[in-house]
Amino acid sequence: MILKNKDVLGLEELSAEEILGVLEIASRFRAVFDRPVRSVPIMRGRTVVNFFHEPSTRTRISFELAEKRLSADIVNFSTATSSFSKGETLRDTAENLAAMKIDMLIIRHSSPGAAHYLAKVLECSVINAGDGAHEHPTQGLLDIMTMQQRFGDLRGKKVTIIGDIAHSRVARSNIWGLNKLGAEVTLCGPPTMVPGGLARLGVNIEFDLKKAVAGADVLNVLRIQLERHSSKSFPSNREYHRMYGITEDVVRTLKPEAIVMHPGPMNRDVEISSEVADGPRQVILDQVANGVAVRMALIYLLSGGDPGALGVGQD
Asked: What is the pLDDT of residue 224?
């Protein structure tokens, strides 16, 4: 058995062996994408509920595609049209869904810890699709999978995460996962966006972009979450781009094999220039494709799938 627990709530809780095991299964599912028929009947007769309390496009669609390709029955739950608007609690809503005998709940919520709370009160498996500024484990896994495709073993690889670290659940999941796999992680951004306390997680903190990218194998560029910032966080979008934007000038200083990543959605010409976002160094669309494979792997494994019996990569 690859996963020890019934839920996937964060990479902080997964071992290096669990992370590598999930990614190995994801690589097998990735092979399905090149087939004329991209679905497999593994989850037929099982029900997955997508419970998105916070707006999402990429993550929600990626989970839905993963579920459809596994042939699961899908229920999409929107809080905008639910009893949440009438004052129903998170627990009451989730328990009502569980009483309908669902097999898995995918939750995205603005409150850190929401997924952990539901995992304690529900018998079905829970996958955290992002909780506040805490963790986004599937994004962390797909990012690591994308790095592995280019570099293989990540031990000793230098990964620089740039941008709005303070509000980023993606950064936290990347930190936990990459540290466990032996990579060296550096965080970079304005002092107002990079909490000094994160150094205790075993990362380097650098406020000078040139120093942060020197020798890096991977630049993982985070979205500036403009909706969460006051006007005092940084002077202007133009000033941020001048100081911390990943431009062609920055990319020219990188090693020839270095790659540029972005979890999306992008603020073009704020945290990343259009030339870089569309250029030869970026692997952004690889991240998107890997996201579906990672989510397929997790759903399969949490449903009791046998990794040894999985032959999805065979004709």
From this structure: 87
Greatest CA span in the chain, whole angstroms?
57
CATH number of this structure's domain 11-135+288-308, picked from the four choices 3.30.160.140, 1.10.1740.10, 3.30.420.40, 3.40.50.1370? 3.40.50.1370
| Cβ contact 105:122 at 8 Å | yes
| Total-model pTM | 0.93
- Per-residue pLDDT at 43: 92
Does residue 107 have a pLDDT over 70?
yes
Q: What is the pLDDT of residue 308?
A: 73
Give me the CATH code for the 137-284 domain, please.
3.40.50.1370
CA dist., res. 312 & res. 130, Å (int): 28
Task: Tell me if 276 sits within 8 A of 241, measured CB to CB.
Answer: no
With tokens 């989510």, the residue in question is: 295
Residue 225's CB: how many other CB atoms inside 10 A? 16
Q: Is 137-284 the same fold as 11-135+288-308?
A: yes
- Other beta carbons less than 10 A from residue 217's beta carbon: 20
